[in-house]
Amino acid sequence: MSRLLAALAVAGLCATGFAQTLADRVNQEEARKHYQSGDRLMSEEAFEAAVREFRTATELDETFTLAYYSQGQALMALKRYPEAVTAYVGARDALYRLSNLDQKARSEREQQRRDSIRELEEALQKIQSGKVKGTGGSTISMEAPIQDRLRLLKDSQFKGAEGGVRVPAELSLALGSAYFRQSLFADAEREYRAALKADDKLGAAHNNLAVICMLTGRFEEAKKEVVAAEKASFPVSPRFKQDLEEREKAAKKSSND
Fold it and tell me: Do both 43 and 113 map to the same domain?
């Protein structure tokens, strides 16, 4: 009798596990549909509606890193910077959740990552070939967020349990910019440095760090970051370099008076 009860208990656990796995997959598929809807709305610059779709996607699948990140992009476009911080932090947390999945689940998510890269590359190709037109005929505003998401996905490959979680440089850069827009310079600097730790050739992070160094009176450090940004082929604004030079001269003059 005890063997029968034990067998029934095991069968019940298996059935429960199967039902949970099935429910998870249904939620993931629904989340993907909402993400794709949000992606379409982003291309139409309907950012409010896009936020709702991306948010629904993350509610259905808490490991949907790209949906969190895309939500952050839409919120940045709406200048809702505190909410963008929350979305980007959510993307980072999703990476940690992914790292705790079993090997089979991670393999499935890795395939989803590859599929998303392929879809984004196809979308970018359509924009660049002129098959898709942006608002007013411009495609620049459409290309940039897609390229950002592509970099994030390509840098998000799980390295294995022994490698831990590697936060993509693009995610730290985005989070830093959301903090910067709120004049939270210490938080922004921390994230820009995290981005450079992940990719020391990320010109945008060097450039943004140069701005923070200038605003906080660290002119020599700012100039080094400008050099690093330009070495990474980032187009540093001539106006910014002029501003940096003038602020440094003014600071030196003030200290001598």
Answer: yes
The two three-digit tokens of residue 134, written as one number: 């942006």
CATH number at residue 228: 1.25.40
**Along the 257 residues of the chain, how does pLDDT read in single tens digits?**
566 555 545 545 444 444 445 567 788 889 999 999 998 999 899 999 999 999 999 999 998 999 999 999 999 999 999 999 999 999 999 988 887 777 777 677 777 777 777 877 777 787 777 766 655 555 556 787 787 777 777 776 655 444 457 889 999 999 999 999 999 999 999 999 999 999 999 999 999 999 999 999 999 999 999 999 999 999 999 999 999 999 999 998 887 76
Are residue 189 and residue 152 in the same domain, yes or no? no
Total domains in the chain come to 2
Could you list the residue range(s) of the whole structural domain that residue 195 is in? 183-257
Q: What is the dihedral of CA 30, 146, 231, 76, to 10 degrees?
A: -80
Closest by CA position to 86, among listed 70, 72, 103, 65? 72
Q: What is the pTM of this model?
A: 0.77
Residue 235 φ then ψ, to 5°: -80, 90
Domain check: are 137 and 199 in the same one? no
